[in-house]
Design brief:
With 179 residues, the chain is an alpha+beta fold. Helices cover 33% and strands 25% of the residues.
């Protein structure tokens, strides 16, 4: 995939790789910006609004993230070295099992009345890999959708989710559409 225009290369990778992926690259000031991506399954956000933006702008909708972690995120990314991937998980709840939750699709929201079998745990398994030649970061996102009825069957998982929901700050719950 070394030949061809960047858009064609990105499209070819998108057809080949299972996870969605984003490419972050430091600008002249060392701020990481989103410079390329193939996102088929967004979690209620628009790629077009994020392209070219620095991380602070991308993370702006997340309450308290920039003031508390913004600087640390940049420092962490700048220190990543090629080799092993750094992994993390992000989660939310959805009323739809659809992988593609682009806002333009107007999927059903978590609004009452709501039955347990209408709710899905949406897990983003994320991986960050430093790229050796460009200094960029490849950010992969692979989704997992688990019916809440399945989570309920596993006592430890159900207790963990309940604890997270009970202790979640109100502004984070609102951001995650859980209010």
């Amino acid at each position: 995939l070394e030949t061809g225009a960047p858009l064609q290369t990105c499209q070819a990778l998108g057809r080949t790789w299972e996870p969605d992926f984003l490419l972050l690259k430091p600008d002249a000031a060392g701020q990481f910006r989103l410079v390329a991506a193939c996102v088929c399954f967004p979690s209620s956000w628009r790629l077009s609004e994020k392209m070219g933006q620095p991380l602070e702008a991308i993370h702006a909708p997340v309450p308290a993230l920039n003031p508390t972690l913004g600087r640390s995120i940049h420092q962490f990314l700048a220190k990543l070295r090629p080799g092993p991937a750094w992994q993390r998980a992000n989660w939310g709840l959805s009323r739809s099992p659809e992988l593609n939750q682009h806002p333009a699709r107007n999927l059903p929201r978590l609004t009452p009345p709501l039955a347990l079998d209408e709710v899905w745990l949406r897990i983003e398994n994320q991986a960050l890999v430093a790229l050796p030649e460009t200094g960029g970061i490849l950010f992969g996102i692979r989704l997992e959708m688990i019916p809440l009825t399945e989570v309920k069957r596993h006592a430890a998982a159900a207790r963990g989710l309940l604890r997270a929901l009970r202790t979640m700050p109100e502004e984070i719950a609102a951001y995650k559409n859980l209010t």
